[in-house]
Every structure is written in C-alpha cells, then in structure tokens.
Amino acid sequence: ATPLSIMVGTGRGARAGILFRSAEALEAAHELDTIVLDKTGTITAGRPALTDIRATAPFSEDDLLRLVAAAEADSEHPLATAVVATARARGLTDTVATAFDSVTGKGVRATVDDHRVLVGTHRLLDDAGIDAGPLEPVAAELAAEGRTPVLVAVDGRPAGVLAVADTVKDDSAAAIAAMHGLGLDVVMITGDNERTAAAIARDVGIDRVLAEVLPERKADEIHRLQSDGRRVGMVGDGINDAPALARADIGLAIGTGTDVAIEAADITLIAGSLSGVVTAIRLSRATMRNIR
Ligand code: ADP
Ligand code: MG
C-alpha cells in the first residue's frame, strides 16, 4: 500500500481503538482466512463466578468449599479467585494449606488439615490414579450448561464437584457473525473441557472448537492450521496466549488483557471486545483495495 493509504488506515484504526504495530500488520490482516479465538477473557468476560457446589457424602457443601478454598488460596487462576471469593463471603477461609503445588492447565494439589486435596480437571485426577467416574454424571450435567466443572478429590477419593461460570461478552456473538459474513472461518481454542467449550461455542455461533489444549500447546495448534495452508489470526488476552499470538500470521491482543499478550501481538484492540477484530480486517481490506 502507498504511504498515504497506510497513514489513512492507521489513523482510522486509532480512532476506532485499533492499534497496528506496523504498516505490515495493517497490510497483512486482509489475507487472513481463519480467526482463532481464545475463550476465557476473549469471548467471555474472564471473570468467572462460583455457581454450584455438589458435595459427595460424607462431605457437606461447606466442608468441600472450605477445603477447596484453602487449596486454591495461592493460585492465580481466575477460577481459584472465584472459589476463594465465595468461601470468604461465607466465612469459610479459616483453614490454611500446608503444601501447595499448581499444575498448569489442570489445577492444584495441596495438603489441607493433613488431607491430600486435588482440585481441577478430570485429567488431574487421572494423573494421580484416582477414578473420577463417580463424579462424571454431575460434571457432564454442569458442563452442558456451559459451566466449568471443578473436580475435587480428598485422600485419593472423589469428594465432589464445584462449577464456575463466566459470562459471554455482549457483542461476541454479533462480532462472530460479522466474521462469518466476511468469509472467515472462526475457531475457539481453550484449556477448558470439551463439553463446556462446545456449549459456549454453540451460544456464540462457533462450529469448530479446539478444547483441552494445554497452555504450551496453543501455538502448536496455530502451526497445525498454518500447515493446512491457512492464514491465521489469533485473538487472545492472557500470558498463556503470547506464544500463539506470536506464532499466528497476525496476533491480536485484547487491550484489557496482560502486557505480555500485548507485547506479542501485531494488533491491539483497546476496547477489549471482538468487534475490533472485524473492524481491523475491514480496515486492512479497504487499505489494500486503495492501491490496486
Ligand atoms: P483457560 O485459560 O483456557 O481456561 P487453563 O489452561 O488456564 O485454560 O486451564 C485449563 C483448565 O484447567 C481450566 O478450565 C480448569 O478446568 C483447570 N484449572 C486450571 N487451573 C486451575 C485451578 N487453579 N483450579 C482448578 N482448576 C484449574
Ligand atoms: Mg485464557
């Protein structure tokens, strides 16, 4: 594109809260054919709240919440924050973990009142040789509602399931419809489980989902799409997302996200909503049309 059309495109972007890192970023965005969206904090608000507590006998709801809050007290995961907030509101944060270990993309292991407590995904329990089978029907029911089931085991036995839910941002569904209108394929990527991811994808009109992707594998999934000949735009907000943003043909960071994501991105969407993706691609297409 000519320097003038780049200047015009960059200026229009800035007024719409879209910051292009370079002229190349503004030019290359028009070639994208696939948009990969992180779920938490990108499609959803990223502020999950605790919605359900299903304790297995002999544990009561309060027992379970007290143990889990103690185990999660030192975790920085948004899901941990949600659990601890509810426990605090109910006066159940009087117990402290004596050992704590966070397992990336899976959950936490802790020792609470001399009990071994595991909190997280089906895989976390599997890895410890614990049969999560008895918790499966409840977990499946919660996940079908688009909530994230958090499985709990105490001393090697299933002890219950909590659920945490995040709300979809107001304009996510409309923005995804607009991406489809531009002829783009839209894919959701998440560390969350298949069922929860599928329920949320259905709500926002996404038909392709990559779920249960461990943080360090997100970039590999982008590479796989590129190997199929696709030009991939990746949209994310978290520390986890930085390698995938860097790997994509164009990385788009949600402006309300972490600095690490913004540093790795080619385009920053200041407003923090998905409509910015649509505007950025329209601007790029308009800029490239002007030179032909
Ligand atoms: P995402 O940011 O896409 O939700 P993560 O890789 O951070 O994915 O986590 C994947 C899944 O691992 C979460 O959906 C959750 O089920 C589980 N998990 C991660 N951290 C914790 C934690 N501190 N407590 C409980 N579960 C967790
Ligand atoms: Mg995330």
Automatic annotation (TrEMBL):
Principal subcellular localisation of the protein: membrane
Annotated GO CC locations: plasma membrane
Places the protein is found: Cell membrane
Coiled coil: none
Keywords tagged on the record: ATP-binding, Cell membrane, Copper, Copper transport, Ion transport, Membrane, Metal-binding, Nucleotide-binding, Translocase, Transmembrane, Transmembrane helix, Transport
GO molecular-function terms, A-Z: ATP binding; ATP hydrolysis activity; copper ion binding; P-type divalent copper transporter activity; P-type monovalent copper transporter activity
GO biological process: copper ion homeostasis
Family to which this protein belongs: Belongs to the cation transport ATPase (P-type) (TC 3.A.3) family. Type IB subfamily.
Function: Necessary for copper homeostasis and likely functions as a copper exporter. Also required for full virulence.
Protein name: Probable copper-exporting P-type ATPase V
Residue window of the full protein shown: 473 to 764 of 853
